[in-house]
Amino acid sequence: MGKDKRYPEKRDISAIVILLATQGMIHLGEIADPLHGKKIMNIEAAGFYIDLLAELQRKTHGNLQKEESSFISDTLENLQKIIFKKTHTANG
Hints:
By secondary structure, the chain is mostly helical. The chain has one domain (13-90). Helix content is 63%, strand content 0%. It is built from three helices and no strands. The chain has helices at residues 13-27, 43-60, 66-90.
């Protein structure tokens, strides 16, 4: 079976983080939804993916290499900053 070029070669924790973060960014309206080609804003859905990423961080704590742990932390922190900004800008 040939490899599909749409999917990353590496199947590791960073691929999972990127998957969750991308979905969060789509629902925060930071990048266009690839299915519709438009930016959408769904804070509830974005929060779901951010929460999943936080749970992944919690469940893998102490079991990752330093670079992997930093990647999850940095990605989660960036998403949390964006959702905070979007929710506080939208609410006043």
